[in-house]
Each structure stands twice: as structure tokens, then as C-alpha cells.
Amino acid sequence: MWCLVVERVMFLNTHSSLQRQQVLSHWKQLSNNKDWSAEQIKHYWLSKYSQQLRKNMLLIKTCVTVAPLLGLLGTVTGMIEVFDVMAHSGLGNARAMSNGIAQATIPTMAGMVISLSGFMVITFIQQKITSDYRQLTDHLTH
Fold first, then answer.
1. Residues 108/72, Cβ–Cβ less than 8 Å
2. Which long-range contacts (CB under 8 A, 24 or more apart) does 75-80 make?
3. CB 123 within 8 A of CB 7
4. The model's pTM
5. Beta-carbon neighbour count of residue 24 at 10 Å?
6. In angstroms, how far is CA 80 from the centroid of its own chain?
7. What distances in angstroms separate CA 129 from CA 30, 55, 101, 102, one per listed residue?
8. Residue 111 CB: number of other CB atoms within 10 A?
């Protein structure tokens, strides 16, 4: 997930503006940008640009959504270990039970940290995508 996030941030900070400039220069080269065919070309370029901006966003969002569920899987695994210790040694072995409880809580915390930080980064990326797309559409209409 973080590799995809870094790739998106790098793309948005470097290649996005280069692609926007290329589209704008092609738009200015059109002899008549008021007719129907020019409008269709503009919609095509906007669609391609939008695809590039949103690339891998669904996969990143899926990772953010799945992270807490994987943490819960770790919780269940840790609790199974606690119950196994209780079955073999009863309630008297607190040290062995605490290992299972730690094993149960750490994955949950890790899943939540990944999910919350990923959610904040996704919000930033989506705002940047909206801003970049709006900049291009504004320049193409004026």
C-alpha cells in the first residue's frame, strides 16, 4: 500500500503537471477549438488525464479498508492462544496468557494505524487529484 501511495504522490508532484502542460500545448495548437470535433478531443484528453490521476487509487483504498480486518485476524489468533494456555494450565499462568493477549492486541493496533494513516493520505491525494483535474478543465475552457 505504501509503495502505491509513494508512487501516486510522486506522480502528482512531477508527472501530472508535465502531462497537463502537454495537453494544454496540444489544445493551443488546434486551429479551431470551438467546433464539435475539438470538444470531443478535449473530452478524450480529459478522460485520459483523469485515468492517469486516479491510477491505483482503488487498490490503495482497498488496502486501507482491509488493514483493520487483517488486524482482527491477528486478534483472533492471539485469543486462540490465550484460550489454549487456559485450557492447558488453567488461570494460574498469567505470563503465558499475557503473551497471547499481546499477540492479540498488537496486530489490531497495527491494522488501525495503517488504516488511519492511509485514510489521511488518501484524503490528501484525492484533494490533489481534484485540484489538478480542475486546473486542466479550467484552462481548456478559457
1. yes
2. 75/104, 75/105, 75/107, 75/108, 76/104, 77/103, 77/104, 77/107, 78/102, 78/103, 78/104, 78/105, 78/106, 78/107, 79/104
3. no
4. 0.75
5. 15
6. 32
7. 26, 11, 42, 40
8. 20
Radius of gyration of the chain (CA): 25
CA distance 111 to 104: 12
The backbone torsions φ and ψ at residue 56, rounded to the nearest 5 degrees and listed phi first, read 70, 5
Domain boundaries, the chain: 54-142
- Written as nine digits, the cell of 58 is 482503488
Q: Along the 142 residues of the chain, how does pLDDT read in single tens digits?
A: 999 999 999 999 999 989 999 988 888 887 676 788 888 888 999 999 999 999 999 999 999 999 999 989 888 888 887 888 778 877 777 777 777 788 788 888 999 999 999 999 999 999 999 999 999 988 887 5
Q: What is the DSSP letter of 127?
A: H
Residue type, 102: A
Q: Locate cell 480542475: which residue?
A: 134
